[in-house]
Design a protein that fits this description.
Blueprint: E1 2-7, H1 12-23, E2 27-33, H2 42-50, E3 54-57, E4 75-78, H3 85-90, H4 92-110, E5 117-123, H5 128-134, H6 157-176, E6 179-185, E7 188-189, H7 198-207, E8 213-216, E9 221-223, E10 225-226, H8 227-239, E11 247-250, E12 255-257, H9 258-268, E13 275-278, H10 293-299, H11 307-323, H12 332-338
Parallel strand pairs: 1-2, 1-4, 2-3, 4-5, 5-6, 6-11, 7-10, 8-13
Antiparallel strand pairs: 9-12
Helix pairs in contact: 1-8, 4-6, 7-11
This protein binds nicotinamide-adenine-dinucleotide.
């Protein structure tokens, strides 16, 4: 039996990792979260109780909370973080405070334990500055130097904390004798991902009958990774032996334009109005696509869901969810920031 702790385990990717592991035998799973974004709803309660999963609730910026954890997990997934471009502009100070505290507290706790291996979730945002400033290769491999284009811009607070995390996890692991691996995600999407990501935004705008539909950054490219593929590769990276200190780019190499993404979403939603190209927000990069050769060769990772198939599943889920009148839960921070 492997003991697994998923920090940030009620969030989009964390919950899907838990679901994936729960379907396989041989795991004792604990989720830790403060439900900042992760939903504490009937679905979570049903899933955790049916699968014997422990839930530890609390704000992990408080180091005293770590005393609730065991000290001998085989695998510790570190996903807790404040995520989303909107938050970086509305509360950049909180991004720095919360994400730094989560990383620091987790590392300081890990060094006192007998936990065997940890996985830190990073982002392509850490390196995109190097593409823009120095013309690095796209699709981009893991050995690209990390680079922030404008250290004062609030948007980059998130990437700055992820760079700290990458360095912190690799170096604490080396000094305190546990294993650590880093995954850098590239636009992971799918049902139940919240309402802050680009795809749910687009779906909501179509449901609001925006016409003409503004296609912000129409010729920018991205590659979108369906949640099942992200989970598959994350678990492979964690469970592969002799991977200490390795970094993996996780995503797909299907590079599409934002224009293609929007128009295909529109066709799935039977939109018959006009489209109008429009500029995007400052700091948004023109191309982003991972080179996943390393994950393919070393982990045996093969993305299985192409973008049109994944987008259809996602659109169907959101349309059903929104039209059923359910609450558009995002976080208590949203409510606070409105007050
Ligand atoms: N989704 C993506 O496309 C993507 C891309 C790059 C990197 N990542 C990284 O992957 C990880 C998971 O992403 P996600 O999309 O599942 O995000 P998410 O926001 O759904 O999950 C993060 C979880 O962390 C929890 N959390 C936040 N602050 C906390 C605190 N103080 N104490 C305890 N828990 C706290 C949230 O409640 C949430 O459940 C994140 O670290 C994110 O930065 C995701």
């Amino acid at each position: 039996m492997k003991k697994v702790l998923i920090i940030g385990g009620a969030g989009f990717i964390g919950m899907n990792i838990a679901r994936h592991l729960a379907k396989r035998d041989g795991y004792k799973i604990t989720l830790a979260d403060n439900f900042f974004r992760g939903n504490k709803d009937a679905e979570l309660e049903k899933f955790t109780s049916e699968n014997g999963i422990d839930v530890i609730e609390g704000d992990l910026t408080d180091p005293s909370l770590y005393s609730k954890f065991d000290n001998d997990y085989d695998y510790v997934y570190m996903l807790a973080s404040v995520v989303g471009v909107d938050y970086t502009t509305s509360m950049p100070n909180e991004i720095i405070r919360i994400n730094t505290a989560l990383i620091f507290n987790t590392l300081e706790w890990l060094k006192t334990t007998q936990c065997k291996k940890t996985l830190f979730t990073s982002t392509s945002e850490c390196y995109v500055g190097a593409i823009e400033a120095f013309g690095y290769t796209v699709p981009t491999p893991e050995d690209i130097p990390l680079c922030i284009q404008d250290i004062g811009h609030p948007r980059f607070t998130y990437a700055t904390t992820k760079m700290l995390g990458e360095s912190g996890f690799i170096n604490y692991a080396r000094v305190f004798d546990f294993d650590s691996v880093i995954v850098r995600y590239h636009n992971v999407y799918g049902p139940r991902m919240g309402f802050k990501h680009v795809i749910p935004h687009i779906i909501q705008r179509f449901l609001n009958n925006e016409n003409p539909f503004q296609v912000y950054g129409h010729d920018q490219t991205r590659s979108f990774c369906y949640i099942d593929d992200a989970v598959q590769s994350t678990v492979l990276a964690m469970e592969q032996e002799d991977e200490n200190g390795e970094i993996y780019h996780i995503g797909t190499m299907e590079e599409i334009t934002i224009g293609e993404l929007i128009r295909y979403t529109g066709s799935l939603m039977n939109y018959e109005g006009e489209y109008e190209n429009a500029p995007t927000y400052p700091g948004s990069v023109s191309r982003r696509c991972p080179d996943i050769t390393k994950a393919t060769e070393r982990l045996g990772y093969e993305p299985k869901v192409n973008w049109k198939e994944g987008l259809k599943k996602t659109v169907d889920w959101y349309v059903e969810y929104i039209q059923s009148g359910k609450e558009l839960h995002e976080s208590f921070y949203d409510n606070k920031s409105k007050s």
